[in-house]
Each structure stands twice: as C-alpha cells, then as structure tokens.
C-alpha cells in the first residue's frame, strides 16, 4: 500500500536520491528544502517517471520555527507521514575561532535542533498508529574528532547519540529509528562547505551518493539501528574504536588542511 515519506533536503545529493527510491516503491512524497525552483525541478522529474503524489514545502530549517511550519503544512494537506527522513544538513571548513558564529548557529539549528523538533512533532502520530520509520543522517564524523570541521562533527555525534537512545525508547512500539553514517560522498555538500581544496577532497575517492542512499533506505526499511555505508567507512569505524582520539584527530587534521599546505 502506498505510504507517505517526508524527506528534508530533497533537492540535491542524498535527499534527491531518497525521493527517487521512495517514488520507485510507489510512496507519495513531501519534499522539504529552501529553494522553490529546485523543489519544482525534482517534483517534475518524479512526476515524469513515477505515479505518486508529490508535495513540497519551501522552508529554511535553519530557522527555529521551521519544523512547526513543516508540520502545520503537512496537517493542512491532510497527510500522514509514515517515513521521516531527516536528511537536510550543511557542513563547514575551517578553524573554529575563525568561523562566523552566525554560520555555526545556523548549522547547529539545521543539523540538530530542526531534526529533533521534526522527530518530536511527527513521532506521536506514528506511535498512535504503532507504525512508522525515521531515518537520521549522521556521518562517519559522528565517531571521531574532526578538526577544521569541529561543529559539524559535533552535530553529527549528537545525531548518532540521539538516534541510538531513541532506538531503545522505541523498542516494541512499531516505530523504528535508524542512523545512517556515510563517509565522504559525491554530493553538493563539499562545494557548499567549501571543502574542495582539502586533501580529503583531492586525495580520496568520494562514495557514490546513490549507493549510500540504497544502504540507508534498506537499513531504514529493516529497522536497523545504525548503518555505516561502504567498506572503507566500515574499516574507519572499526579503527576509530582502537586508535586513540588524539592520533585520530591529528590524522584527520592532515586531510582537512588545504592541499597546497606543506
Ligand atoms: N556528502 C557527504 O560526504 C556526507 C557525508 C556524511 C553525512 N552527510 C550528510 O548527509 C546529509 C545530506 O547532505 P548531502 O551530502 O546530500 O548535501 P547536499 O547535496 O548539499 O544537499 C543538502 C540538501 O539540504 C538542503 N538544505 C540545506 N540547507 C537547508 C536549510 N537551511 N533548510 C532546508 N534545507 C536545507 C539543500 O537544499 P536547499 O539549499 O535548497 O535548501 C539540499 O537539498 C547532510 O545531513 C550531511 O551532513 C553527507
């Protein structure tokens, strides 16, 4: 039976791939992002290829009232959300003391607060139905210190911790929650940060976004608590458990620096 999926950050990267997968499986969509034109473009692409209903909400999830706005828009359309994908997020690059506070705050609001607020609003109807699935975008950066991306990594550690605690709270309720931990992947995130000049970007190969999303989608559907996507990232996750944090931080700092640095 067709269900409804709400995907934040639906207009590029992982979010757009999630929309394609849900639509492929016959599920209706509520797409959330800031850019109306970009939403329309993805909406048209989905209409062309799949027979599902697509709604969109243009909102800045970096704003404190945004989650409420999304919830009200969904209620006004008389929709029930069966799958919530908290995907929208931004990254950063640079030393903490050099980065602008307003940008840090916006990132924390988007990556953490709106994600939690959306979960707070959409979870009760799921619990009432004893059915529903939530997927939160964490990162391999959730597992280790990440110099020159300090706040980003902290937001992703928050997402992982929140999701795993919630997975326990939701046991036997019929609702599941999953954290997806991708590594560096080929989306627009790197250009937006910008991370294009880092050794990370120049010296390592980025994962294919559609493969990452396939992993996340399957993990969500099977109710898996935590999914690290990709073999290389699984090795990194295992190493993060045995390598001291200081050493990890030094290694990551090297990759986060600009390639032109000696
Ligand atoms: N790519 C990676 O290497 C990687 C690795 C680990 C985890 N992740 C996580 O994966 C998630 C998706 O990132 P991505 O790589 O797919 O990035 P992306 O290609 O840059 O896509 C980000 C999406 O979020 C939306 N967005 C950005 N700021 C927003 C805001 N303030 N309000 C509402 N929507 C906003 C963007 O649309 P608008 O600009 O139109 O709003 C876009 O649709 C993020 O949470 C990221 O941290 C990415």
Proportion of residues in extended strands: 5-15%
Low-pLDDT residue spans? none
| Helix share bin | 40-55%
Radius of gyration (CA) equals 18 Å
Largest sheet: 7 strands, parallel
- Give the N-to-C terminal Cα separation: 58 Å
Average of per-residue pLDDT values: 95
Task: Report the strand count.
Answer: 7
Q: Given the structure, what is the number of helices? A: 10
Ligand inventory reads:
NADP nicotinamide-adenine-dinucleotide phosphate
Overall 3D form: globular
Q: Which strand order does the major sheet show?
A: 3-2-1-4-5-6-7
User: What class do helices, strands and sheet pairing give?
Assistant: alpha/beta
H and E string? EHEHEHEHEHEHHHEHH
Give an account of the 3D structure:
The chain has 262 residues and is α/β, with parallel strands linked by helices. Helix content is 51%, strand content 14%. It is built from 10 helices and 7 strands. It has helices spanning 13-24, 36-49, 66-76, 101-129, 150-169, 189-192, 199-203, 209-222, 231-242, 245-256; strands at 4-8, 28-33, 54-58, 83-86, 132-137, 175-181, 226-228. A 7-stranded parallel sheet has the order 3-2-1-4-5-6-7, with helices on both faces. Strand 5, helix 5 and strand 6 form a beta-alpha-beta unit. The longest helix is centred in the middle third of the chain and has 29 residues, at 101-129. It is globular. The protein starts with a strand and ends in a 6-residue tail after the last helix. The structure holds NADP nicotinamide-adenine-dinucleotide phosphate (NAP). Residues 9-15, 33-35, 38, 60-62, 87-91, 110, 137, 139, 182, 184-185, 187-189, 192 line the site of NADP nicotinamide-adenine-dinucleotide phosphate.
């Amino acid at each position: 039976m067709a269900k409804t999926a709400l995907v934040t950050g639906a207009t590029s990267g992982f979010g757009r791939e999630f929309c394609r997968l849900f639509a492929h499986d016959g599920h209706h969509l509520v797409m959330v992002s800031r850019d109306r034109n970009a939403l329309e473009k993805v909406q048209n692409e989905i209409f062309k290829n799949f027979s599902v209903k697509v709604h969109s909400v243009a909102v800045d999830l970096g704003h404190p009232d945004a989650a409420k706005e999304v919830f009200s828009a969904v209620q006004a359309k008389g929709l029930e959300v069966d799958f919530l994908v908290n995907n929208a997020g931004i990254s950063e690059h640079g030393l903490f003391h050099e980065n602008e506070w307003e940008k840090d705050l916006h990132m924390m609001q988007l990556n953490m607060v709106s994600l939690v607020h959306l979960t707070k609003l959409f979870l009760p109807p799921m619990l009432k139905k004893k059915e529903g699935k939530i997927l939160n975008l964490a990162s391999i950066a959730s597992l280790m210190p990440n110099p020159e991306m300090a706040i980003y990594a902290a937001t992703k550690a928050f997402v992982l911790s929140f999701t795993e605690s919630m997975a326990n709270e939701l046991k036997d309720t019929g609702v599941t929650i999953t954290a997806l931990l991708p590594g560096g992947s080929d989306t627009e995130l790197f250009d937006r940060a910008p991370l294009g000049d880092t050794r990370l970007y120049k010296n390592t190969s980025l994962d294919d976004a559609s493969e990452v999303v396939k992993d996340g989608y399957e993990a969500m559907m099977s109710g898996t608590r935590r999914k690290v996507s990709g073999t290389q990232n699984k090795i990194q996750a295992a190493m993060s458990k045995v390598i001291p944090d200081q050493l990890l931080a030094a290694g990551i700092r090297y990759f986060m620096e600009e390639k032109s640095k000696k």
